[in-house]
Write a structure and sequence with these properties.
With 438 residues, the protein is α/β, with parallel strands linked by helices. It has a domain at 10-238 and 406-430: Rossmann fold (3-Layer(aba) Sandwich). It has helices at residues 21-28, 41-58, 63-70, 76-79, 85-88, 101-114, 134-138, 156-166, 186-197, 274-278, 298-312, 377-383, 396-405, 409-430; strands spanning 10-15, 31-38, 91-93, 122-125, 170-176, 200-208, 219-227. A seven-stranded mixed β-sheet has the order 3-2-1-4-5-7-6, sandwiched between helices. α1 (21-28) links the parallel β1 and β2. α1 (21-28) packs across α14 (409-430). It is globular. The protein starts with 9 loop residues before the first strand and ends in an 8-residue tail after the last helix. Mean pLDDT is 91; it is low at 1-7, 135-143 and 145-151.
Length: 438
C-alpha cells in the first residue's frame, strides 16, 4: 500500500483529479490515495508519473531512475519497469458518466481489495469549472452549445454518486466562485440539495490561495461536507502571510531567450530563495524540467516591453486602446482592454494563473524586461507551488492547461492538514488513548 509522508492511513479518492494539485497536497499531509479519476489522457499520465515518484521516494535507491527519466536518459516504459503495477492502478483514466460509473466503482473496489482497505475517509475534487466560471459565461455567446446546456453542469451528480457509494467521513468540493451565481444560482442550489440528499451536512466559503501562503491571488469556492450524525465541522484555516515576493519563485531559474529552453538552474540549491527552501519547492537533487518558453512575434515583443515598462513605472497597467495603431490587431478594444499583463514580480502575490496560458502568454508576461517574454511551463508551475520534482506529461500546450486548472499544492496541503486535525480530534474524543488510524 502507498503510505503518506507522515505514515497516516487516512484514505482518499480524488475525482476530476486533473494533474493532481489537490492529491499532492493531501499526500504531503499524510493521506493515502486510493484512486485518482481523470478523463484527460495527458493529465492521467502525469498522475501516473507522480505516483511513480512517490513510490520511488519511499524506496530511495530507485530515485536514481526517476531523475534519469527527467533528464531524458530513459524512456517512460523503462521507468515503469521499476514500479509495481498496483501503483499505477490508482489512476483511472475515464470520463465519469452514468454509463461507466459502475466500471469505475469496480476498479476502485479492486484497488481497495488488493490494498486491504476497508473504508474511504475522504473524497476530494471538483468538476471542470468552465461551465461555472465568469470567463466561460462571457464566451458562451460564441459557443455552438450554450453554457446553460453544457453537460458539465451536471457532473456534480457523479460526485454525489461516489459519496453515496463510499460514504466517506468528509469531502472537499473545490470550484470557481462563479458556481454560486451560475444559471442564476440554480446550479449551486441543486448541488447543495444533492449533497444533503446523500447524507451530508455542508458548509461553503470562498477561499483565497494567498491566505494559505501561496504567492497568487486565486479565489476558489471550497465546500466541505461531513456525514450527518458526526461532530465534524468546517476547519478554521489559519491565515499564512508570507513576506516573500513573486520574484522569489523565479530568481533561481535561468534566463531564457524567446522560444528557448534551459535545464540547468541559474544558482545552486543553497542560494535559492527562502520561500523556495521553506516550502520545499526545490531540493538539491532536483532536475530542472519544463523550463521551456514559446517564441513571440516582434509585435508581441514590443507590446510586452511596453507592458513591463508601464508596470515598472508605478505599477500601471497598459490598456490595449493606448497602444499605437500599428501594434493593434483587434477591432474590439474594449473586450481586449487588459489582454496584456505582467506577472507582478515585485509584489507578494500575482494574479490568477489560468489554463488560458495554453493559448498564448499575453496575460502572463515575465517581469524581467531584459527577457521580454511570456512565462515558461516551469515558471507557471512555480507560481502554482508545484515542486520542481513534479513532471507534467504531454506537450507544452497540455502542460499549461494542467497547471492552470490545478489547485496549488501548498493550498491543498494546508486544507488537508486542517481537515486531518478536525478528524483526529473527533477520533480522540470517540476513542481516547486508542489508535486513530484504520
Amino acid at each position: 500500500m502507498f503510505v503518506g509522508e507522515s505514515g497516516s492511513t487516512m484514505n482518499f479518492i480524488d475525482l476530476f483529479a486533473g494533474a493532481g494539485g489537490l492529491s499532492e497536497g493531501f499526500i504531503q499531509a499524510g493521506f493515502n490515495p486510493i484512486a485518482h479519476v481523470e478523463m484527460n489522457a495527458m493529465a492521467a499520465a502525469t498522475l501516473e508519473t507522480r505516483a511513480a515518484y512517490h513510490y520511488m521516494k519511499k524506496h530511495r535507491p530507485l530515485m536514481h531512475w526517476y531523475y534519469e527519466y527527467e533528464r531524458g536518459n530513459i524512456t517512460r516504459e523503462r521507468l515503469f519497469q521499476y514500479i509495481p503495477d498496483e501503483v499505477t492502478k490508482t489512476v483511472i483514466n475515464a470520463e465519469m458518466s452514468p454509463g461507466n460509473i459502475a466500471d469505475i466503482f469496480k476498479q476502485i473496489d479492486g484497488v481497495m481489495q488488493e490494498d486491504h482497505v476497508n473504508r474511504i475517509n475522504i473524497i476530494v475534487g471538483g468538476p471542470p469549472c468552465q461551465a461555472y466560471s465568469l470567463v466561460g459565461r462571457a464566451q458562451s455567446s460564441h459557443m455552438l452549445v450554450p453554457m446553460s446546456e453544457d453537460p458539465r453542469n451536471e457532473l456534480y451528480k457523479m460526485y454525489t454518486r461516489f459519496l453515496k457509494k463510499y460514504q466517506p467521513d468528509m469531502f472537499v468540493f473545490e470550484n470557481v466562485a462563479g458556481l454560486k451565481t451560475a444559471r442564476k444560482g440554480e446550479s449551486f442550489k441543486n448541488l447543495q440539495a444533492q449533497l444533503r440528499r446523500v447524507g451530508y451536512v455542508i458548509e461553503c466559503h470562498e477561499q483565497n490561495a494567498v491566505d494559505f501562503g501561496v504567492l497568487q491571488n486565486r479565489r476558489r469556492l471550497i465546500i466541505i461536507g461531513w456525514r450527518k450524525g458526526t461532530n465534524y465541522h468546517y476547519p478554521v484555516f489559519e491565515k499564512i502571510q508570507s513576506n516573500a515576493l513573486v520574484n522569489d519563485l523565479l530568481s533561481d531559474l535561468p534566463v531564457l531567450e524567446r522560444g528557448g529552453q534551459e535545464f540547468a538552474y541559474r544558482v545552486p540549491c543553497a542560494q535559492a530563495s527562502k520561500y523556495i527552501k521553506d516550502n520545499q519547492l526545490r531540493t538539491c537533487r532536483d532536475v530542472l524540467t519544463h523550463h521551456v518558453v514559446r517564441d513571440n512575434t516582434p509585435r508581441d515583443v514590443e507590446i510586452y516591453r511596453r507592458t513591463i515598462e508601464a508596470w515598472n513605472n508605478g505599477h500601471q497597467r497598459l490598456k490595449y486602446a493606448d497602444l499605437p495603431e500599428e501594434l493593434k490587431t483587434h477591432r474590439n478594444q474594449t473586450a481586449f482592454a487588459d489582454r496584456f499583463k505582467v506577472v507582478e514580480g515585485d509584489c507578494r502575490s500575482c494574479h490568477t494563473v489560468l489554463a488560458h496560458l495554453s493559448k498564448d502568454g499575453h496575460y502572463f508576461i515575465h517581469p524581467d524586461i531584459n527577457q521580454c517574454r511570456s512565462i515558461s511551463v516551469r515558471e507557471a508551475a512555480r507560481l502554482q507551488t508545484f515542486p520542481d520534482s513534479y513532471y507534467f506529461e504531454g506537450n507544452r500546450t497540455s502542460q499549461y492547461v494542467q497547471i492552470g486548472n490545478a489547485v496549488p499544492p501548498i493550498m491543498a496541503r494546508r486544507i488537508a492538514e486542517a481537515i486531518l486535525k478536525v478528524m483526529e480530534n473527533q477520533m480522540k474524543e470517540k476513542n481516547p488513548g486508542g489508535n486513530l488510524c484504520g
